[in-house]
Amino acid sequence: MTADQLRALLSLPHELAAVEAKTSGSLQTVEYVAKLARACIAMANQRNGGTILIGVTDQGETGRLEVVGVPPEDLSSWSPDNLMDKINRYARPPVQLTLDRIDIDGHMVLAISVQEFTDIPVICTTDHNGERNNAVLRRGAVYVRSSTKIQSVEPDDLTMRELMDLATEKRFRHLLRLLGRVGITIKDASDVTEEASRKLETSTPHKTWAAIQQRGWWSLGLTPVDGSLTIPLQDLETWVRAAVVQAAGGWYPCLAPVILCQRLPDAISWCVDAGPTKEAWIATVHGVVLGRVALVNDWWDESILVPPPEGWTPKSRFPIPSSIVQVGHLVEFLANCASSSVYDSVERVKVRAEFHGLSGRALETNDPAYLATTWALLGHGSVPIADVPFEADVARSEVISSHRSIAVRASKVVVEQFGWDASDPTLEAMLAR
Questions:
Q1: Rounded Cα–Cα distance for residues 83 and 37 (Å)
Q2: pLDDT of residue 294
Q3: Helix axes 403-415, 424-431, angle to 10 degrees
Q4: In degrees rounded to 5, what are phi and psi of residue 97?
Q5: pLDDT, tens digit, for every residue of 15-40?
Q6: pTM (global) more than 0.85
Q7: Residues of 192-213 as b/e, b for ≥16 C-beta within 10 angstroms?
């Protein structure tokens, strides 16, 4: 981690699930190391790992991060080798991590970058009770990052299922590598997704493709994880048109009857570049559906029907509930695709819903239904952080029956970056509008 990256984190109005702040301590102190090991195990057991900042505190209810630094008497105990040795006395398989020393305005901060587990989840190997005889570590426990509070906890049923899905995905990739060594090649979900993504870009007019990515946009995707799915090329258009969601006078995605599809050798694609509506989609014979959809509110300057709100500028706001409603309808479209009989041989799917272009925005609502109750919680602060991906590897039946809950999870990933700990019922209510 660099000093600039650390400063960007410190400027956030809250702590992140992938970042934990800890006050200074010595690696010679058993109690401190045990608590640090718990945090490292939890970071290793989440997708993409995370970072632990030593010499940084969070400011109570505000959650803002403040540098206090690591004093010389503690700093002398910190080295990469000593850290690895101390932490992995409590963890199996060993946690993979790196240690960086960063000077912030004369204060030394230690950044521990924890890698996602390689093969199987990391398990605690040793019991440790704290000074008040409370269980800091429990032998055999699997620690994860809480989905409701920034801390390391033992998983609930939903988090455990996500952890097992991640482990299963890694074992499957390992099997594919072994088969490849003996000359057997099988395309996995990532292969067909990457292939579809390349075709989507090349089949979309450059002007439209560039416009979508110029401001904020959603990246949507549905990919079958298992089975060798093949949909006849002549059936693709019927399949996706039947899945389109019509709501609030619009089409999600924008595939109205007047929109023509382009037929490729093994896929169909379509795009729209009309005023604030800018989209590009592809559906392949392997059952992959990918879309790039611009945030409508970022393009008010091209609307001929509705003038931009007063003070509006592109890429300055993430409006709710309109942005959440938009992704909710698009996830419903993906669920409709998965519910079709052409997907009957598929048991598991990957659903992706990631927002790009979050940095520098303020979370905002001008909806009277939420203004009175949420404005004080949302605030105006800009968000100087990178985009946060969301991908769910779930049973096909879950996508069909619970697509709204998947949209809620994708929305929470975004709004939490603004420091708003939105409840599921609140987001559910927005999606139901």
A1: 10
A2: 94
A3: 110
A4: -150, 165
A5: 566 788 899 999 999 999 999 999 99
A6: no
A7: bbebbbebbeebbeeebbebbb
